[in-house]
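seq as requested:
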Amino acid sequence: MAEAELGEALPRRWAHSQGVAHRAAEVRRLVERDADLLAAAAVLHDVGYAPRLAVTGFHPLDGARFLRDEHGADRRLTRLVANHSFALLEAEERGLREDLATEFPLLDDPLLVDALVYCDMTTTPAGDRTTADRRIAEIVGRYDADSAVGRFVRRAAPEIFAAVERVEAALAAQPK
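struct tokens:
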């Protein structure tokens, strides 16, 4: 589904989604019972960027609505996609906070939510591995500082770094 929506229209976004899915496979042991859910959210998290799906222009909301309305996707999956990488903060910048929070409340599963943030924020737009610091710098460099994304990234950066640190600590505590 993600490949069909992103592959031709946005090949770089598709490459990023594939990289995020590879990261999800690497951390699946942290969320054992939800490993398949994490994998699905990882590959689908940016599907809302697809031109035909961009209704509001806010990809987490557009993607989650597409998954829910056109595919009857699992509610937990749509909620993960809608809220990936602290999307609620960006929704606030865009005047969509109430829509996002009402339609797709944040999951009460902090490790699963953090795992998706980790996978997204340690993957470059080309799908390669990176650090959260470099990923945030790349996003900041791509958007105008006064844009909704620019403001969002500055606000979300401490939360993103904290989520990545929590996942790295959980991975380090896992038996080898």
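The CA atoms of residues 85 and 117 lie 5 Å apart.
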